[in-house]
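We now fix the convention by which a protein and its fold are recorded. The integers have meaning only within a learned vocabulary of local backbone shapes. A record is reproduced here so that you can trace the correspondence yourselves:
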Amino acid sequence: MRYKGKTVLVTGAASGIGAATARRFSREGANVVLSDTDSDKLAQVVRDLPAAHTRTITGDIAKPADCEAMVTTAVENFGGLDILVANAGFAVMGPMEEVSDENFAGVIENNLTGTYRTIKAAWEPLKKSKGTIIATSSVSGMRGDFGAFAYATSKAGISNLVRSLALDFQRHGIRVNAVAPGFTETGLTADMMNNAKFLERMHSRIPMGRDGQPEEIAGVVAFLASEDASFVNGVILPVDGGLTASNGQPPLA
């Protein structure tokens, strides 16, 4: 119950890492505000969460007014905001010649600019609480990826946004970090999970030999938000089964 009395806002909370993160904070006693564009899935996620300590709001992080409304929901219902988990995002896959300018701009607008807008909306209450921010980057934001240049670019931007804001916000007592998930079983990777040949190749690249689970990412988010991470700031923490530790060579026989 280390988060009892604390209030957490989780964006992209209707599925995957966001849903697992919201459940994790709720289980540890927090008041949790869950936001997503999908109200039906949000309703499913919160069915088993304590009603007195849970709120949902349908919103799009690409819209500044929606970001403000998410933060207002936390402040008006629970008296403030202590932790922001800026998790919402999506991917457009394909090589550059197959991705339109509009689709590329949409990924940047939602993932990178949307993360910035969410943080900007939460800035004042987090300053009051000397709170903490955890964004969701990706190992794709640390290195390139085949057929994912738009997504990788947006996540690289998030990583350096986190580093830069960590430097600027430290004088106000706000820590800013990010998790960088590796290949994780979520809705974003559902098509890949159904491709046995791709899955075999991907698992062969991951030293632990498997994909990650949303709950494993959520555990690291909860750590970064805790007092146990009180001297951790500006970090992009891979949660990837050892993927980024490897230079890609096969193991010795």
Notes: The mean pLDDT is 92. The chain is about 45% helix and 15% strand. The CA atoms of residues 62 and 167 lie 25 Å apart. The longest helix spans residues 101-129.
